[in-house]
Amino acid sequence: MRKRVAVIGGGIAGLAAAVRLGDLTPPGTEIIVYEQGGVLGGKLRTGELGGRPVERGAESFLTAGPDGAESAVVTLARHLGLGDALVHPAAVPAALAIGGRLTPVPGGTLVGVPGDLTKLGDVAHVAGADRDEGHPLLAAGDDIAVGELVRARYGDEVVDRLVDPMLGGVYAGRADRLSLEVTMPQLAATARVEHTLQAAVRAAQAARTRAAGPIFTAVDGGMSRLVAAAAAASGARISLGLPVRDLSRTAHGWRLLLGPVPAPQTDDVDAVVLAVPAKPASRLLAGISAEAAEVIGRLDYASVALAAIALPPGTPLPELSGFLVPPSEGTLVKAATFVTRKWPHLGGESGAVIVRASLGRHGEEDRLQLADEDLLLRARRELGDLIGGELPPPVASWIQRWGGGLPQYTPGHHDRVAFARQQLPAGLALAGAAFDGVGIPACVVSGERAAEDVSKSLEE
Ligand SMILES: Cc1cc2nc3c(=O)[nH]c(=O)nc-3n(C[C@H](O)[C@H](O)[C@H](O)COP(=O)(O)OP(=O)(O)OC[C@H]3O[C@@H](n4cnc5c(N)ncnc54)[C@H](O)[C@@H]3O)c2cc1C
Fold first, then answer.
1. From ligand 1's centre to the CA of 170, what distance in Å?
2. What residues have CB less than 8 Å from 374, skipping those under 6 apart?
3. Mutation choice for ligand 1 from 8, 33, 34, 43, CB with most ligand atoms inside 8 A
4. Do residues 134 and 202 both lie within one domain?
5. 292 and 161 in one domain?
6. Is 402 in the pocket of ligand 1 (CB under 6 A)?
7. Per the count of CB atoms within 10 A, which of 92, 108, 186, 444 is most buried?
8. Cα(285)–Cα(271) distance, rounded to whole angstroms?
9. Residue 330's CB: how many other CB atoms inside 10 A?
10. Are 111 and 202 contained in the same domain?
11. In terms of DSSP bridges, do strands 52-55 and 113-114 run parallel, antiparallel, or are they unpaired?
12. Domain end: 138, 173, 207, which one?
């Protein structure tokens, strides 16, 4: 009989799952993507500013995977016919804001954790002894918060001025909470062997298979092109605007309850890929495994807002791709990208000069409770202070809010997810940033694996 598979969540993980399902399942299998929003893509959404595409969510992805080969999203983009649309940033450096001034990011660090302490200059002073105490830094199977490890070995300044802004740039979170295993897996691996942090960082750097070429890739025309191409290639039926409210087992598969409470609809399917953030995933799992639901629901999120500002043509900016700001600086701006300088495919700075600032960090949600125009004013003032000159009034601007947008993986996250997965019956697979990592490549791998899992269950 003709099989039916539902993908719940139309972000990149759900769409990667739908594409892989389209490739793996026999012709005639019906794939349905249920997305509660009015558009597909989740945190991938391209907007417009000053006549150019500007990302309202994720801006770029890693070109290479952990093995040095092309990352899963690059492979997916090529599979979707977007190989020629893959573009790279200009080779301009990034800076750190320290003491209200921009200073070059020191070289030779692993997400801010230095392997060569002589390269730190005045950015951070190392305190504390990174002594060999006769055993590895981390016991086998253990996980630790990045901040706990680095503070003990290098002191507070290295965490506050280097690691926090680097991790904050990705997670909007703090080193003192984030899991080493999830955010720096290579360092977690070498910390289980080496006796000092310096040796562990160096071993992790040496083990890294550095692919030649640019580290980051974006899509000419914007991430929404990737989203549209994936949706089209999957052959899936796309349902927009109806949240899935309940998931339950039937004798042979799964029942989805959809739509508003006064007008519920149901859909019976043979298998499900659940590709939504942790809170909705936990709610939908409640009737299937209370333990899995509880463990998944523990994942906390940070809220951020993006302020995109188009400045008049010719507005001078430093020769940088952008900068990161440590939380200790006290600003609401945690990072900024000089979009038109960083991305040459956007046509350079002949037109409006575009700056995109990222505001807010985990635990600072109340600081984002400002009207859009006040957030914009604040962003412009702080950017001007850090750049060293007041910015002119923008010619156009917008604010994009991502309430609960970025997962905060605390130590033990991988074990909790593995436990939750063990509780689930075949035919139901979890995918996305809530489970397998925040980066787009990790979300693609996660979606593809979930598709492989549920397609196997369809054959049984
Ligand atoms: C501001 C920002 C910038 C970022 N920048 C980068 C970057 O430059 N590079 C990078 O690699 N990563 C970046 N990330 C992270 C990355 O974008 C995300 O981790 C990734 O896109 C998440 O994909 P996902 O499919 O797991 O989840 P999501 O994109 O969250 O998609 C989940 C979807 O499920 C839907 N949904 C939820 N509940 C239901 C329900 N009950 N029924 C139906 N649908 C439901 C949601 O509406 C959503 O569309 C950024 C994230 C943010 C917020």
1. 13
2. none
3. 43
4. yes
5. no
6. yes
7. 444
8. 14
9. 9
10. yes
11. unpaired
12. 207
